[in-house]
Amino acid sequence: MQPRLFERTAIVSEIGATLAVAAPLAAANLAQMAMAVTDTIMVGRLGGVPLAAAGLGAALYFTIVVLVQGIVSAVAPLAASAIGAGDHDAAGRIAGGGIALAVLISVPLVAAMMVLDRLLLASGYDPELAVEVGRFLRAVAWGAPAFIAFGALRSFLAAATRPGAVMAVVVLCIPVNAVLNWILIFGHLGMPEFGIAGSGYASAINQWLMAGGLAAYILAAPGLARYRVFGSMVPSGLREIKGILALGLPIGGLMGTEIGVFVTASVLMGLLGAAALGAHQIVLNIASVTFMVPLGIGQAATVRIAAALGAGARDAARRAGVVAMALGIVFMGAAAIVLWSAPEAIIGVYVDLDDPANREMIAIAVRLCAIAALFQVFDGIQTIAAGALRGYEDTAVPMVLAGIGYWAIGFVVGAGLAIPLGHGAVGFWCGLALGLASVSILLSARLYWRAHATS
Asked: Is residue 254 part of a domain?
C-alpha cells in the first residue's frame, strides 16, 4: 500500500533520495564555474585586450552551447520516465538519441563559431578585439560536440540515479583544465605559445575529456550495460530525436529567456558607467554561485518526478515536487541571510575594499546585494518549479510564462526604472527581482495545477 502523501517516513525518504541526486549535480555545476574562473585568471596574465576578448568569446560560446544543452537535457525526464516504468531499452534509446542529436546540432554550431568574428567586425567592434575573439572561438568551437554530448550523458546518468559520476568527472577536470591552460596559453613543456587561442584549445580538450569520462563510466559501470546507450545511437536513437526535440526545444527557449534578460541587462548596464557595470557583474556572479544549488535540486526534481510518474506513483511525484521546493527555499533563505548581513565581506573577495578607486562601485554593489538577497528565494523557486515541470513533461507553457515574467514584467520595469526614471543599476535590479518573483509565482501555480491535474 502506498504511503500517504505527507507521511513522515515518506518525506524523510524523499529528502534523502532528492539530496542523493541534487548534491552531486550542484557540486558539478559549481565545479564548472570554477573552471571558468580559472580560465579568466590565467588569460588575465596576457593583458586587458586578451582578457576582454576571452570574456566576450566565452560568453558567446557558452551561452549558445548551454542553450543547446538545454535541448538535449530532455533526455533526463524521458529516460527517467522509461526507467520508472521498467523499460531500460527505451531509456538507452533515448540516451543514444540525445548523443546523436548532440552530434547533428554541433556541425552547424561549429561552422557558425568559425565566422562569428566577422559578424562582430561588421557590427562595428574594434578590429583588434574582434580578431582576438575570433582566435578564441575558432579554438574552443572544437569542444562543442563533446560539451553538448556531455549534457546528454549527464542527463542520462541523473535519470539512472548515478550523478556521482558526473561530479567526480567534472571535479577531476578542474586541475586538468588549469594545467592545459598553463601549457597551451604560455607555451610550456615544449608546446607553442598559443596565447588566447590556447585557452580555447584547453577548454575544448577538457570538454572532450569530460564527455569521454562519462562515456567510459557508462561502458564500465555495473548495471549500466543493460541500457546499451552507445549501441542505440543509430538507428534506434535517431527515432527518439523527435521526442527529445519536442520536449527539449522549449527547455532551451526558457533558458534563453532567462539568460537573455541578464545578458541584455549587462549590455545596458554599460550605458550607466563603469562603476555600475562592475557592481552588476560582481553581484551577478555572486547570485550565480548560489543559484547552482537550487539548479541541482531542480535537476533532481526532474528525474524524481518523471521516474515516479513512469512507475504510476502520482502521489510520489507530488511529494517529490514539494520536497524539492522546500529544500530550495531553505537553502536560498540561508543564502539571502548571508547576502543581507555581510555584503561587504563577500564583495571584498572580488575587489579591494580599501582602494578609493573602487568606492563608487562598492557602494552600488552593496545596494545590489540587498536586492539579490530579496530575490534569492524567488530565484530558487523558479528554477526548481521549472525542473519539476520538466518531470511532468510540461515545457512549452513554462517557456511562455518565463518570457512574460522576465521580459514583459522584469525587463520593462527594470529598464524604465534605470534609465528614464534615473534609478540606475538599483532600478534595473529592482526590475530583475520583480521578474524573478513573477516567474516563480507563475511557474509555481503551473506546477500546482499539473500536480493536481495528474492526480
From this structure: yes
Gap between the Cα atoms of 167 and 223, Å rounded: 19
DSSP for residue 228: -
Q: Which amino acid is at 189?
A: L
Whether cis (ω within 30° of 0) applies to the bond prior to 235 is yes
Of 209, 234, 259, the last residue of a domain is: 234
**Nearest of 154, 153, 136 to residue 52 by alpha carbon:** 136
Residue range 44-94, pLDDT digits in tens: 788 767 877 787 788 889 888 989 999 999 999 999 999 999 999 999 999
- Residue found under cell 522549449: 250
C-alpha cell at 188: 610550456
How far is it, in rounded angstroms, from Cα 321 to Cα 110? 38
Candidates 207, 346, 365; CA nearest to 289 is: 346
317, 387 in Cβ contact below 8 A? no
119 and 256 part of one domain: no
Q: What is the per-residue pLDDT for 2?
A: 46
As given in the structure block, the three cell numbers for residue 95 are 540516451
Quote the CA–CA distance of 335 and 381 in Å, as a whole number.
13
Q: Return the amino acid letter for 110.
A: V
**SS3 for 455?**
coil
Domains in the chain: how many in total?
2
**Residue for grid cell 576571452:** 54
pLDDT digits (tens, 9 = 90+) for 236-262: 767 899 999 999 999 999 999 998 898
| Cβ–Cβ < 8 Å for 420, 365 | no
453: cell is 491535474
Which of 307, 432, 412, 423 minimizes the C-alpha distance to 372? 432
Q: Report whether pLDDT(3) > 60.
A: no
CB 412 within 8 A of CB 404: no
Looking at 234, 263, 279, the residue that finishes a domain is 234
CA trace torsion 340, 345, 350, 353 (10° rounding): 120
Size (the chain), residues? 455
d(CA 246, CA 395) in angstroms, rounded, equals: 9
Amino acid at 384: I
| Main-chain dihedrals φ then ψ at residue 250, nearest 5 degrees | -65, -30
The crossing angle, in degrees rounded to 10, of helices 359-391 and 396-403 is 160
Domain that holds residue 49: 1-234
Alpha-carbon span 7 to 315, nearest angstrom: 11
